[in-house]
Structure formats: structure tokens, C-alpha cells
Design a protein that fits this description.
Its EC number is 1.13.12.19, 1.14.20.7. GO terms for molecular function: 2-oxoglutarate oxygenase/decarboxylase (ethylene-forming) activity; metal ion binding. InterPro entries: DIOX_N, IPNS-like_FE2OG_OXY, IPNS-like_sf, Iron_ascorbate_oxido_reductase, Oxoglu/Fe-dep_dioxygenase_dom. By secondary structure, the chain is α+β, with helices and mostly antiparallel strands. The protein has one domain: Jelly Rolls (Sandwich). Helix content is 28%, strand content 18%. The chain has helices spanning 11-16, 19-35, 48-63, 66-70, 121-125, 140-165, 249-254, 314-324; strands at residues 8-10, 38-42, 82-84, 105-109, 183-189, 203-206, 212-217, 224-227, 233-235, 243-247, 264-266, 279-286, 293-294, 312-313. The strands form 3 sheets. It has an 8-stranded mixed sheet. A 4-stranded antiparallel sheet has the order 6-11-8-9, with no helix packed on it. A two-stranded antiparallel sheet has the order 13-14. A hairpin with a 5-residue loop joins β8 (224-227) and β9. The longest helix is centred in the middle third of the chain and has 26 residues, at 140-165. The two termini are 35 Å apart. The structure holds 2-oxoglutaric acid and fe (ii) ion. Fe (ii) ion is lined by residues 206, 208, 213, 264.
């Protein structure tokens, strides 16, 4: 990690800085993304009222009896939105690692509108599939949509920062993200009253599939860990008032692995740390347009160097990764 400390980046400060200062701050972000790809973002401008509202509604939703939550369940395996009950997903399987299912439940919602003229069958059946909204708690849908909208905007601002960090024109990524297929996921890791199975975690080791993830872990919570460049698991500390950002596979692909899509996981609570404690988080997975073709950036290739990966299409890549985890 940069300087051994978890990096904290002031986004508002970057946005009002002059060009030279932005380049300097961009270089800092480049260094972070080359080493771990995880940083905390402060001064992000997202309204605290919007955050508190979705946080509270998600908490109330997870408190409902199981039969009520099941009313908004994803209708079949591999369906991306709605309620995904306990032990239905194993994130480690996205890396072809067999593992018991993760000890969590989630509620998932997709893009708020389908672009005009979208006819791709897979796109319509997968990322533009309807979100199965819960009837309760009251106000859930409005709170969800407000947070989703705020985070889509924040993600676009962070993509501008990333463009500066990569010495690209600041609006370079805009054409790839003007009809994004991002998903918001509210996660609940229930109190653990029975011991986990061997190898069973709250979230198995994985990388995220998109451009970037904006995570809001429960204040003061533990459990999220990342792999450092020297191969050790290390905790991601909660930073009050900040979002935790991590880059996903598509940034690694764009940059020919100059930036790392770092493996991370959520471990079970230890008895000293409150043992069975419940944990909550919100994860916004920013994902470029369904048909955005992610091709290695020339700027990231040394003269004569070949791209390590074949280009991928954002939507189909996401779909295949997601579906591999719910088999
Ligand atoms: O809940 C967390 O803190 C992280 C979850 C995560 O990494 C994921 O769902 O991709
Ligand atoms: Fe993740």
C-alpha cells in the first residue's frame, strides 16, 4: 500500500484544482492503482441524507421475515436483480475456485432505464431485466433510486479522475459510460450462529468485474480484506465519511495490467471482534455500456509490446462472470 497507509483521496479538492495540480494528484492515483487499486474517497459530494435513507431502508428490508423478503426474490438462478437469499452465491467461483456459498444475502437493482433502440436479447434479458422491488419497507424504492443516481454520477466523476491519472483526455471514458449498466447491491452478512463450513467466508476471494466499485461498508465494521502486491491479506480499514473505491477487471484490461483489479474478500468475524456480529454494506458496481468494447489502451503499451488480453464487451463479460457465481 502507498506509504503503508490506506490511501485517502479528496475528490472535491481534485475537481477544483488547476491543471498542474490535477496532473500531480492524478499521478498519485496512478501509483495507488498500480499497487492495490483500493482507495478511500472523501469530499465526494454525495448527500448524507441520501446515504442515510438507503442505508436505513436496506437495514429494515433485511430485518423482515424471510418469507416476506422472498416475495422479491430473483425468479431464477442467474437472474441478476431482486433479493438473493442466504447462501446462493459463491464469489470465488468467478475465478473458477470451487467453494461453499458465501454467508450473506443481498438485494440487487439494475439500471433505471433501457436506452432507446436497445434490441440485444441478452442485454434485455440480463442487465435490463426488471428489478423485483420489495413492497416493504415503505420508501425503499425512492431511497434506492436516489442513491443509485448519486453513485452513477460519482462513478462518472471518478472515471474523469482515472482518465487524468492515465494521462488521457479527461473525458476519454465518457463514450464508454454514457449508457452504463451499473448495479447496486445492498449486502447483509447475518449474525453467525453456527460455525462456517470449511473454506466458507462472508464473501469468497474475487475481483470485481467492471470498471470500478464504490463500496460503503458499515461504519466501524471489519472483515473486508485485500491482497497486497506481496501477496498478504490485509484489512481495508473503514474511513469515516468516505467511500471505498476499488477498480475492477475492465480497468486492468484497459491498462494491460498496469492497474490491478485486486483480489478481495470478506472474512468471518473472529470471537474477539464481536464474534457473530451482523455486517452491512452497499456496493455500487460501475459497468460501462453493454456494447462498450474494452481494448487495451495504446498509452499502456511500451513500444513493441502486445496486449495481454483479447478485447471484451462490457455486458457479455459481466453476464458470464455473474452467472458463474450462482451455479
Ligand atoms: O461487503 C463488502 O465489504 C465487500 C463486498 C464485495 O466485495 C462484493 O460484493 O463484491
Ligand atoms: Fe467485490
Amino acid at each position: 500500500m502507498v506509504g503503508g497507509q490506506f490511501p485517502v483521496f479528496d475528490l472535491g479538492n481534485f475537481e477544483k484544482a488547476n491543471a498542474a495540480e490535477r496532473d500531480r494528484l492524478g499521478a498519485e492515483v496512478d501509483a495507488i492503482c498500480r499497487s492495490t487499486g483500493f482507495l478511500a474517497i472523501t469530499n465526494h459530494g454525495v448527500s448524507q441524507a441520501v446515504i442515510d435513507a438507503v442505508w436505513g431502508k436496506a437495514h429494515d428490508f433485511f430485518d423482515l421475515p424471510p418469507e416476506q423478503k422472498q416475495k422479491s426474490k430473483a425468479p431464477y438462478k442467474g437472474y441478476p436483480y431482486g433479493y438473493l437469499g442466504p447462501e446462493l452465491e459463491a464469489l470465488a467461483k468467478s475465478r473458477d475456485v470451487d467453494s461453499p456459498p458465501d454467508l450473506k444475502e443481498s438485494f440487487n437493482g439494475g439500471p433505471q432505464r433501457t436506452p432507446n433502440g436497445m434490441t440485444d436479447k441478452d442485454a434485455l434479458a440480463f442487465c435490463y431485466a426488471p428489478t423485483i422491488w420489495p413492497e416493504a419497507p415503505e420508501g425503499f424504492v425512492d431511497a434506492w433510486k436516489a442513491y443509485y443516481t448519486s453513485l452513477e454520477d460519482l462513478a462518472a466523476r471518478i472515471m474523469r479522475l482515472f482518465a487524468v491519472a492515465l494521462k488521457l483526455p479527461e473525458d476519454y471514458f465518457e463514450r464508454f459510460i454514457d449508457a452504463p449498466i451499473s448495479a447496486l447491491r445492498a449486502l447483509n452478512y447475518p449474525e453467525q450462529t453456527v460455525p462456517p463450513k470449511p473454506g466458507q467466508l462472508r464473501a469468497g476471494a474475487h475481483t470485481d468485474y467492471g470498471s470500478l466499485t464504490i463500496l460503503l461498508p458499515q461504519e466501524g465494521s471489519k472483515g473486508l480484506e485485500l491482497i497486497t502486491p506481496d501477496g498478504n491479506w490485509t484489512p481495508v480499514p473503514p474511513v469515516p465519511g468516505a467511500f471505498v473505491i476499488n477498480i475492477g477487471d475492465l480497468m486492468a484490461l484497459w491498462t494491460n495490467d498496469r492497474w490491478v483489479s485486486t483480489m478481495h474478500r470478506v472474512v468471518n468475524p473472529s470471537p474477539e471482534d464481536g464474534g457473530m456480529d451482523r455486517r452491512q454494506s452497499l456496493a455500487f458496481f460501475h459497468q460501462p455500456n453493454w456494447d462498450a468494447e474494452i481494448v487495451c489502451l495504446e498509452q499502456c503499451l511500451a513500444p513493441g509490446e502486445e496486449p495481454k488480453y483479447q478485447p471484451v464487451l462490457s455486458g457479455p463479460y459481466l453476464m458470464s462472470k455473474f452467472q458463474s457465481t450462482t451455479k
